[in-house]
Amino acid sequence: MPWYKSGTVSVTLNSNAVTGSGTAFIVNCRVGDAFRGPDGRWYEVTNVASNTAISIDPPYIGATASGGSYALAPMQGYVKDSADALRAIVNTYGAQLAALKTTGNYDILPVSKGGTGGTTTAEARSGLGLGTASTSTLTTSAADTTAGRVLKVGDHGIGTGDAPTGNAPAGKVLNTLIGNSMFATTDASPSDFPASLGFGTFPMGIHLSRSPNLAAQFVMTASTNPTSGCYFRAKVDGTWQNFRRVYTANDVVGTVSQAGGVPTGAIVESGSNANGYYVKFADGTMICARTDAYPTLDVNITSGTMFRSAAISPVAWAVSFISTPRVMVSSSSSSGVGWISKGGSATASSTPLVYEIELVSATRSVSIEYFGFGRWVA
Fold first, then answer.
1. How is residue 101 annotated by DSSP?
2. Is there a contact between 30 and 106 (Cβ–Cβ < 8 Å)?
3. pLDDT (tens digit, 9 = 90+) per residue, 64-95?
4. What are the residues facing 375 on neighbouring strands?
5. C-beta of residue 37 within 8 angstroms of C-beta of residue 73
6. Same fold, 8-76 and 271-375
7. CB 372 within 8 A of CB 322
8. Is residue 21 a contact partner of residue 67, using CB atoms and an 8 Å limit?
9. Which secondary-structure segment (H or E) carries 125?
10. What secondary structure does DSSP assign to 3-16, as a single string?
11. Which residues contact residue 134 at a Cβ distance below 8 angstroms, ignoring those fewer than 6 apart?
């Protein structure tokens, strides 16, 4: 290796300190190198303090000098080259090597030391606790139906705000849904939702498809509308059928309603008021009943061989029928042998005119019961 001679040095008689100017001792000088001073004598380098300061032994023998020439001769040959290379590695990677600590003691680095604990992909997955999903492939589109693919948010409508329509843009017409998906449309009035059902705001649900011609939809609605709830419809031979309401226990008793002849409310509604009792059914049937008491009814008008009361005026039904109902009237008399006779037809809003019939002329305590059978909706 060539001797190092860059710059100049200053030395002092009987001192082991050498001060450099324009020198780079750190890189070019090692303890044990030979130093030839301005006096031409050789000294051993005993310390390299900085790029401009080294120590020599013995102390400088020659006359004090400033800016003198010098030379550094390497005395360790290839050992110095190796040391230089090792120091370069330490300077560059020392921090990283120190961080490895005990990890260098393993042929297979365990997970606890930051490794995988295996030499194959299967061993690595096992060591890292990865399941079979780690070897699967993600879906390539929202409508990807490839077996074994791993679903992402948005696939088949899961987690999206709009109903997916395959490769078409997200849509709000549920007739166009394909595949199997969940949906939540942002359209408050989808064109294929019958307005008469009052689906309310932003319907959501599940679309299931067997083929382009055979599918089904379950739709839930969010609204304070009485008709809001769950509905079902099927596609048969490529044609969507009408929506059908899915009834729950909460829908059995409540307010009945219809839209276009299709029940949209509860199954049974009942109630009472001063005019009696009523029951409405979802199909449109209604029954009304009332009982009226007459504690001192005179039954003294001759009628053939029997006697009748004066006409008992019609009274109102608890709820008016949509048209004239069928009516049944019965009575119970304190005589135990009385009859009731209709003297006219009932109307949609009131009972018929009736008479009490007795075998003898008397004043009776009579209770009359009216039953009307009809419809609350046409």
1. G
2. no
3. 999 999 999 988 655 666 777 778 888 887 77
4. 285
5. no
6. no
7. no
8. yes
9. helix 121-127
10. PB--SEEEE-TT--
11. 125
Q: Residue for token digits 């059978």?
A: 373
Give the C-alpha separation, 280 to 179, whole Å: 42
Radius of gyration of the chain from its Cα atoms, rounded to whole angstroms? 53
Ordered by start, the domain boundaries in the chain are 8-76, 155-246, 271-375
**String of DSSP letters for 284-327:** SEEEEEEEEEEEEEEEEEEETTEEEEPPBPP-B-SS--SSPPEE
- Report d(CA 264, CA 261) in Å as an integer: 9
Q: Which two tokens stand for residue 122?
A: 């299967």
Beta bridge partners of 200: none
Counting runs of H as helices and runs of E as strands, what totals does the chain give? 4, 25
- The CA distance from 206 to 164, in Å, is 11
Q: Using CA atoms, how far apart are residues 366 and 330, in angstroms rounded to an integer? A: 10
Q: Right CATH number for 271-375 from 3.40.50.1360, 3.40.50.300, 2.60.40.2080, 3.30.1490.20?
A: 2.60.40.2080
Could you read off the pLDDT of 205-255 as tens digits, one per residue?
888 888 889 999 888 876 666 666 788 889 999 898 888 878 777 788 999
Question: What CATH number does domain 8-76 carry, 3.40.960, 2.40.30, 2.40.50, 3.30.70?
Answer: 2.40.30
**What is the C-alpha separation between 99 and 60, in angstroms, rounded?**
44
Q: What are the tokens at 211? A: 């083929």
Could you read off the pLDDT of 314-323 as tens digits, one per residue?
Answer: 999 999 999 9
